Amino acid sequence: KAKKKSSYEIETLTHWLLKQEQNGVIDSELTIVLSSISTACKQIASLVQRANISNLTGVQGAVNIQGEDQKKLDVISNEVFSSCLKSSGRTGIIASEEEDVPVAVEESFSGNYVVVFDPLDGSSNIDAAVSTGSIFGVYSPNDECLADIGDNPTLDQVTQRCVVGVCQPGNNLLAAGYCMYSSSVIFVITVGEGVYVFTLDPMYGEFVLTSEKVTIPRSGKIYSFNEGNYQMWDDKLKKYMDGLKDPGTSGKPYSARYIGSLVGDFHRTMLYGGIYGYPGDAKNKNGKLRLLYECAPMSFIVEQAGGKGSDGRQRVLDILPTEIHQRIPLYIGSVEEVDKVEKFLA
Ligand code: P6P
């Protein structure tokens, strides 16, 4: 007889991960990697929520490989993520938005998973306390990429092998997720069997399961683009955008919602439906978002929720990265909405 679930029985992320392991969905090494990622997110959540108090707003005074001013919290969040992953002992290679090249993790003694992450996406919003987020993806260990590298490999040799180990298509993702630092701290994860949402209970610092097998509506009349770039878009995209504002037979045009923080805009799109887009434009033909640690993890999640992630022509998860910080245009959200923009762009 199935044990009756008491109404007070709450499922924490730790419970949930152990259940996935017991059910053979993930192995014990990956369980530890994902648990260490959730620990990093809790630490970043507390740093973000106290940023103004502990004087951690503002810039670090350095510029990252993206040519963006690194915020103090960008650097600290990257260190938090890296050290949590290294101390897990199960991570072989990490690739971060904040690191010029992938890093081979010395401390790894088993598992050797490849973890890609943007430790604090949307950090330009921190000073105004607008939602930000951490995004991550986990690939299978790529042992052969560091095998027979010889006794004293040069840094270049190791780096080259790591780039090979990291550059995998999103189809290879074993797990992906994000943590949104907003009015509440929301941890979203998929290990390939649906999307699960956990909310941080600050009373005892645990992520508690609040939604399971989340599905995105097939359509939605919310669009999330930075229309400030309209003049630089190609005519097909302008036509699509103009059409969204036409009340048409329904008498109601689409609504525009744009936070300027991918995790916030994506999470709302996944729950309410609609489309988020960061198109290429005349100045940046590949747009702004990075394939490896922004577009691919978000596309894995949205597909697991029954949605679609495209670069305007093809499925994001089919794209093989050729370099770790490569950018692609992104159109992601409800199937019918992404289909619609693809038709205009064809
Ligand atoms: P723009 C934040 O810098 C980010 O990478 C995403 O989180 C966000 O969606 C986008 O860039 C905002 O870019 O050009 O509209 O300010």
TrEMBL record:
Cofactor or coenzyme needed: Mg(2+)
Molecular functions per Gene Ontology: fructose 1,6-bisphosphate 1-phosphatase activity; metal ion binding
Record keyword Hydrolase present: yes
Pathway entry: Carbohydrate biosynthesis; Calvin cycle
Cellular compartments annotated: Plastid, Chloroplast
Superkingdom in the source lineage: Eukaryota
Main location (coarse class): plastid
UniProt record, GO biological process: fructose 1,6-bisphosphate metabolic process; fructose 6-phosphate metabolic process; fructose metabolic process; gluconeogenesis; reductive pentose-phosphate cycle; sucrose metabolic process
Stretches assigned to the Fructose-1-6-bisphosphatase class I N-terminal domain: 12-212
Fructose-1-6-bisphosphatase class 1 C-terminal domain sequence ranges: 216-345
Catalytic activity: beta-D-fructose 1,6-bisphosphate + H2O = beta-D-fructose 6-phosphate + phosphate
Name of the top EC class for this enzyme: hydrolase
GO cellular component terms, semicolon-separated: chloroplast; cytoplasm; cytosol
EC code(s) of this entry: 3.1.3.11
Keyword list, A-Z: Calvin cycle, Carbohydrate metabolism, Chloroplast, Disulfide bond, Hydrolase, Magnesium, Metal-binding, Plastid, Transit peptide
Subunit-structure text: Homotetramer.
Family per similarity comment: Belongs to the FBPase class 1 family.
Protein name: Fructose-1,6-bisphosphatase, chloroplastic
Residues of the full protein shown: 65 to 410 of 410
